[in-house]
Design a protein that fits this description.
alpha+beta; globular; disordered N terminus; YDG domain-containing protein
Length: about 500
């Protein structure tokens, strides 16, 4: 009998029940390590395995088992185990049949009950032990955006999958800010770099400015709890605005300073993510904090308004500006998408080429940007148009470009396509608008959010000119054209005037 049992093939290794139970909440790498260790101990009968068997044997002896549970010793125990002496008691046949059948029936039921949860645990264990691949921040963001779109329409959200913007749907909210994991450039730092140690020793002025910003965040957090809706809290918000706007324009930082100040950490109680993830802060402060956060996250620490722009002398000593290819390669961007993308409401640029640099618009001269099949992505409202347009803020009457022989231009057809698809169009207002327009920015250009083309009509049949009606999408914050939230900020205006005085543009 023993020979027949020993000739059977060894059963596959079964993980202990405690390990299967614990696997449900364990980390994959930890569980995998423990399983390999258990396999090795059993296979090689290590001292640790023998000790585990000895402890188990003691427990079984107390329970009346009387056998060592070490499978290697099972054969020896079978030979050495004394034959138990059983004194039968007289019982009736009917009772004997009932008592003999009862344990087998109970045992079979227990086996069924035990096998079911064990199979489920084994399935969970198989899932845990599968290799887990690291996911890039971009892929993670795309996955989260897709999940959000499945549960709630979202056209106002960050357009991480810009190659297929038509799949995104509208969301009645301008709060589309995503907190990302720490950037790779920060994770690659060890803290032993010479530049980082020099910061700890010398404490540059920029680090002090960031610590003042963090202190202001902490005070705003405290005041929002103790003094909500008071002048004290409003004064702190004004102070915070100045800190953020100063950091955007004047603060010269490095990645070592940003890491030391812990500005990008999603868990920091006083980092930038704390501002744009908290419901207590005004929408303009959240937007400006997010704009600064994204630039630093991309490792772009150049605060120059004209970063990424190259100026060249042309004919008759005229200066021509163009995008710097090296900058575009380091910080790739696109403007061929519907929605906000990485833009924030009120984002401001000194020139239209700078708006092209940041993916807000696609051409440094034209007012309409789009594609034949996908319609218009963005438009720029500016003066000098031969036709009278109307700007009412939330409603815009906007004329397309002049065609020929009663045929509309390609740009005009882009807006017609947008009217058919209903996809939103980004609207950028220029300081070249009439001075009487209260939505006109003081200088440069400002992003004012998403609009839909709801209708259009032909105003000049011979020149194929059409006038389009655009209405602002619901759920967005107010246009930042007045008050404390106004853009451009005082820091941006001062820098614009300085650069113009230096002859950066005419």
């Amino acid at each position: 009998m023993e020979n027949s049992e020993s000739s059977k093939e060894p059963k596959p290794f079964q993980y202990p029940a405690w390990m299967l139970e614990w696997a449900q909440g364990a980390k994959p790498e930890t569980m995998s390590r423990l399983m390999e260790k258990e396999k090795y101990n059993v296979k090689n009968n290590t001292p640790e395995n023998q000790e585990n068997r000895r402890v188990g044997a003691v427990a079984m002896d107390k329970a009346g088992g009387g056998r060592d549970i070490n499978p290697i010793k099972s054969a020896e125990q079978a030979e050495q185990a004394p034959t138990p002496v059983i004194t039968p008691k007289p019982i009736s046949r009917s009772k004997a049949k009932a008592e003999v059948g009862k344990p087998e029936e109970t045992g079979s039921k227990k086996e069924k009950v035990r096998s079911q949860p064990m199979n489920r645990r084994q399935e969970k264990l198989n899932d845990v032990t599968r290799p887990v691949l690291a996911e890039s921040s971009t892929a993670g963001a795309s996955r989260e955006a897709a999940a959000a779109a499945a549960s709630k329409p979202d056209l106002m959200a960050n357009d991480t999958a810009r190659s297929q913007p038509e799949e995104k749907k509208e969301q009645d909210s301008d709060d589309h800010y995503s907190v990302l994991p720490l950037p790779k450039w920060q994770l690659s730092m060890t803290g032993n770099e010479f530049q980082y140690r020099a910061i700890l020793k010398n404490r540059p002025q920029a680090l002090g400015a960031l610590e003042a910003l963090k202190d202001c965040i902490a005070r705003c957090e405290g005041a929002a709890t103790k003094f909500p809706g008071t002048a004290v809290l409003e004064a702190l918000y004004d102070n915070l605005r100045d800190h953020i706007h100063k950091a955007e324009i004047r603060l010269t930082v490095t990645k070592y300073i940003i890491r030391k100040a812990n500005m990008l950490s999603p868990t920091s109680p006083t980092g930038l993510p704390k501002i744009f993830t908290s419901p207590s802060y005004p929408s303009d402060i959240k937007a400006d904090a997010y704009q600064l956060y994204l630039r630093w996250y991309k490792e772009d620490f150049n605060q120059d308004l004209l970063r990424g722009i190259k100026s060249e002398k042309g004919n008759k000593d005229r200066t021509t500006d163009r995008l710097d290819e090296a900058y575009r390669h380091k910080y790739p961007n696109t403007s061929k998408y519907h929605g906000n993308g990485d833009l924030v409401l009120g984002q401001w640029w000194p020139t239209q080429l700078c708006a092209v640099r940041d993916g807000a618009h696609g051409t440094p001269q034209g007012g309409i940007w789009g594609e034949k099949e996908r319609g218009a992505f963005s438009i720029v409202l500016s003066g000098g148009h031969p036709y009278r347009d109307a700007d009412y803020g939330d409603v815009i009457e906007y004329s397309g470009t002049e065609g020929k022989n009663s045929t509309p231009t390609e740009n005009t057809r882009h807006l017609m396509t947008s009217a058919r698809t209903g996809l939103p169009v980004r609207v950028i207002r220029s300081a070249q608008l009439a001075k009487g327009n209260k939505y006109r920015p003081e200088m440069g250009l400002r992003y004012d959010g998403l609009y839909r083309v709801v209708s259009y009509q032909e105003t000049d049949k011979e020149k194929a000119v059409y006038r389009f009606r655009l209405e602002r999408c619901a759920g967005q914050a107010a246009i930042r054209c007045q008050g404390k939230a106004s853009r451009p900020t005082s820091f941006e205006c001062e820098e614009f005037i300085r650069l113009k005085a230096d002859g950066k543009w005419e």
